[in-house]
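One such shown below:
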Amino acid sequence: MVSKNPSLAATVRSADISAHTQAQMAVLLQQQQLTGVVWSTVTPEGVRTGAAGIADSDQQSLLRADHKMQVGSIAKTLIAVGILRLVSEGKLSLDSPLSVLLPDLPVDQLLDNPWAAEQPVLLRHLLDHTSGLDDVRLWQVFSLRATPDSPLSQAFKPGTSMRLRTKPGSRLSYSNMGYTVLGMVIEQVSGERYERYLEQHLLQPLQMFDSSFGFITQQEPAADPRLAMGHFENNVTQATVPMFLRPAGQFTTTAADMALFVRFLMSDGVIHHEMNDISNRKPFIAPELLRAMGQPTTTEAAQAGLIAGYALGLNNRDRHGVIGRCHVGTTFGFRANFCLFPEAQKAFFVAMNADVETANYDQFDALLVQELGLARLAPMPPPTAVLPQDIANWLGFYQLAPSRMESFRYLDLLLNFATLQFAEPQQGEQLQLKPFQGAARLLTPVGGRLFRANDRITASHVLLDSAERKRVISDGFRSYQQVSIWQLLPLWASAITGVIGLGFVLTAGLLRFLRKDSLISRWRHNDPLLPPFSAVVFLLLPLPLFFGQSFLQLGELTLASAALALVTGLLPIAMLLGIWHWLLRQAAFRSGAVKGRGKSSVPELLAMIAVLQWSLVLVYWGLLPLRLWA
């Protein structure tokens, strides 16, 4: 695993990648409708970089290998290595409680940890995404109010408490907030901004001179001409904007600098170009810490035998017939990935200046795996593995546990559940895991309660019993907990009847409005359908306001989001008014005060009740009124 090269930077060059790879990159850009791509490959022979496509679609300038790119969440790996440097220096311990590391922060108030007495949040939990923290809130990501100099504490609203969803250390749940807290830890230890400290004590020693944790943009007056422009679908440009969660996603770099970084991660932890005395080689990062990156140990899945997962800033990734330690990064207008293969001393980095929802970015990874000439591993054979004897108890419905974003847990319950069932008889002793919104995966038993998906070479899933005695299926990154169909059916029924009720109220109201004898001038104020119909129509009013603002303001309190909160908050009130008027009219009809066509419609009453009950469910889950800035 140890790199023998005398200097990290000595072999970095903009060399010609094979003609096949260069041509294929151009083909993939066209096929996936992306703008541009830069990449680098690392082998024992040296480093090569390449580029294809356009740097800025407005200017139609060609993308060069030395262009700078935004790499989003890859910043987390750099933050993790910065923490490991402090650990190697003895300034931090991975097992230090967060309350000790941030004495000036009311951690006990900020974190609602039901397991605090037995398991406080430790530094390693934040590094491993196992703290139990939520991922993000909309306002932390979709906001133009952040500035390059916003204190990290502004990423957390004063007086708010974040409840941990799982016991710290037990289960992976990706958290941008967790890595923002790590930035605060670095600032507490160093006494200065984390950006400045890491640039001096991490980037400079690694000779990553074209990289920065600071805010870099394409916009004047401080535009960096070497920074490629970000793009969305149809080559719509997007300049870089400041963010609240900087440590989790703000990092600017080049393909050559990332080659230096990944090669160091595969080394013995010594920065060779700084060695004055080869007999006194003091590691920059303790080698055992580098080896532990991407090797989870504390989670339920890891302890049940699964090697897939996340640890110390890297994940263990089984793709394209090889196993690497990788990290993907996405930010507005950019997407990037890198993977390293320490046993072969090979690695790749790739970054696209386009964030397109429908693009298959895995094809770029597969091409670079091929370019590196990595030997494809044979899939783990099922020795004579059979399904566990109690497998029938594991079949059924599963829900995400926890949801990545707690704010949308209700939506995950409705739409992100999965089913586990036997595969078709002709497919042999296999299970089928079918997410509601994804393709079914066949799982082959490989011993015990471990299973391998057909496109993986090692065990990819494990069945386990949680500490709470719940049945869980995990792939090391996400966990699904078994749930009774009778818990899901009421939620589905509530949502379906609510949507049908909304449609009925809208349709009936339009028909009544369009009837010749029911023009607005004759629509009586005591018509039971008037308040519900008006409330449903009002739901459409914020749409033009949202179209008139940047999507990056989605998490701000704006005229559009305030209007949305108002009209969604009025919905249950309007249904109550409609039901009340319906009952009054029915009583009047029975008493003879209203005759003939004054009788109210029972289907209209049922529709209003359907919408009301769903509204109350949404209120319970915190989704009504819909406050995007909360």
Summary: Confidence is low (pLDDT under 50) at residues 1-15. The longest strand covers residues 46-56.
